[in-house]
Amino acid sequence: MTRLHRVSIYSSILISIYLLVLFEVLPIPLVDASVAQDILPVVPWWLLVSFGSYSLWSLGWGVFTFRDCPDAYHELLQEINEAKNDLRSRAVTVD
Prior knowledge:
Elements: H1 3-22, H2 33-39, H3 43-64, H4 70-89
């Protein structure tokens, strides 16, 4: 089974459970119904904001630790210099 199938199955199950709880088909034990009605509609937005925060954090961490890959860093700098030299040879102002 591929990762796509697993993610699809798990997310379908979780969405089904969420909808059943949201429409009060399944009761939530140990939680008052009024509290559940206040919290459950906000859960998708909370998940979206959490996913966005995680994505920004992981992107920022990747940028922050980019210099920890010295070979890739030097290769990228070399490619930038080659591009600049190529543009200068074509009479394009760089810098």
